[in-house]
Design a protein that fits this description.
Helix 13 runs parallel beside helix 20 and helix 14 runs antiparallel to helix 16. A 3-stranded antiparallel beta sheet has the order 1-2-3, with helices on one face. It is globular and about 80 Å long. It is mainly α. 57% of the residues lie in helices and 3% in strands.
């Protein structure tokens, strides 16, 4: 009996070792040229922008922190977050992804314990959002409501103005799913304040500020921030350009202020490429797999050991994730985008009979779960580039610097066709917001129709 049991255990051990060796061979096969190329492409480090950062002005909007203490507060919070985040992998194993990623209170910020909360102020329903293309029209008749709101939000408005005067808004926190992000919604405050200034009669002063706003947002957009940064700045470029056009209509005879040159300069298509943002998005997604790998490597739990050696693989998981982004960072993909063609991401279908599945079953299943259609974000950026070109050409036409007939040609974008309909320039959009029309319509000046 004992001999039989001993032989059975020996056979089982040999089979287990053989299986684990086979899995490692399958992993070597599964990590092919496509995976190797995708990883090499997406793990290129994105350089930090130069100059002074304004992130601190948008980081703690809910706390009443004196301006002189913002640098210190950010440094404390960042250090505490890095220390806390170092144990993220272990928490993922103990508590699960839901508890470790989705709970906004999971990180106990020292800033929250030091400074009092700033009162929450609800915005009026008529307040303009970041992408409002006719803020003047929306606020007209509601000036008192907007004025009262902006007065109540004077502290946040001042912080937003400071942020716009910065060289960049780069997020200093490590890329991870639980990293703090900037309170970008604060940037709607200057948009509304500029529109109110014009409605109160100071069109010239509002125009100066609108040009500063548009120039700042174009500067932030061309930097390779996180994906959410890129999309927010693209939306605000839309809103700021629409606001400047509205102001131009109020005083078409007045020359644009000198500071408007940076705001109204030629549109560089490269500013609207999402590759750098996708690299940071990839790093955020990959941080989950890496954290789990590091935690299981440090664990003596047999289940964690089994998961690492037989069920999941960090390198394959990262490579399969990189494949979603790689088409939009390849040279041929970028060339296509600049010509108005966004490449499709390769599909990753669940296949229990594939080498990929048996190499890392859990990683394969997770990778087969539908990933966001990342191409839609590049589509939106192309929309925003086309929209900016049309807004700038319309601004020139309203001011008499360009005949209306030349606007469609001057605002031409690869893959877009501007038409004239019912006294409007009409630009069809690929990815319009759900609440917005599927096209941008800009009225042609009556004198030029």
């Amino acid at each position: 009996m004992m001999k039989w049991l001993k032989n059975s255990l020996l056979v089982g051990l040999v089979l287990a070792i053989g299986y684990l060796v086979a899995v490692q061979v399958l992993r070597w096969i599964a990590f092919g040229e496509e995976e190797r190329e995708a990883l090499a492409l997406m793990e290129v480090e994105v350089p930090a922008p130069a100059g002074t950062s304004g992130f601190k002005y948008l980081a703690f909007s809910g706390r009443d922190i004196p301006a002189a203490e913002l640098d210190q507060a950010l440094a404390r919070d960042l250090a505490a977050y890095r220390d806390w985040h170092a144990g993220w992998g272990a928490r993922l194993l103990d508590d699960g992804i839901q508890a470790s990623v989705a709970d906004p209170e999971y990180f106990d910020s020292p800033v929250a314990a030091t400074y009092p909360e700033r009162p929450k102020v609800d915005a009026p329903a008529v307040a303009c959002g970041l992408r409002e293309t006719d803020c003047l029209g929306k606020l007209r008749g509601h000036e008192d409501d907007i004025r009262a709101w902006l007065q109540a939000e004077a502290a946040r408005l001042a912080l937003a103005e400071q942020a716009l005067r910065s060289d960049h808004l780069d997020n200093p926190y490590p890329p991870a799913m639980d990293s703090p992000i900037a309170a970008f919604q604060m940037l709607r405050l200057p948009v509304n304040d500029i529109a109110l200034q014009a409605l109160d009669g100071d069109v010239a002063g509002a125009t100066v500020r609108a040009c500063d706003l548009l120039a700042a947002e174009r500067r932030f957009l061309r930097q390779d921030g996180q994906l959410i940064d890129k999309m927010v700045h693209g939306s605000l470029v839309d809103g700021a350009a629409g606001l400047l056009l509205g102001l131009r209509r109020l005083a078409p005879e007045a020359p644009l202020p000198e500071n408007c040159a940076a705001a109204t300069g030629p549109v560089a298509a490269e500013d609207f490429l999402a590759c750098g943002a996708f690299r940071k998005e990839y790093a955020t997604v990959a941080s989950l797999s890496t954290a789990m790998h590091e935690a299981t490597s440090d664990s003596w739990n047999p289940l964690h050991w089994l998961s690492r050696w037989a069920l999941s693989d960090d390198r394959l998981m990262r490579a399969w994730s990189a494949r979603h982004f790689a088409p939009m960072c390849r040279p041929e993909g970028i060339a296509g985008i600049l010509e108005g063609r966004v490449p499709d991401a390769p599909g990753f279908a669940y296949d229990p009979l594939s080498v990929d599945f048996w190499a890392a079953p859990i990683s394969h299943i997770l990778s087969a779960i539908a990933a966001p259609a990342y191409g839609q974000y590049q589509d939106r950026l192309l929309d925003q580039a086309a929209s900016l070109r049309l807004h700038l050409a319309a601004i020139a036409a309203v001011g008499g610097e360009m005949p209306a007939a030349q606007v469609p040609m001057a605002a031409a974008s690869p893959g877009y066709d501007i038409t004239v309909q019912d006294g409007h320039w009409v630009l069809p959009l690929r990815r319009a917001n759900a609440q917005a029309a599927p096209e941008l319509r800009i009225a042609i000046p009556a004198a030029q129709e």
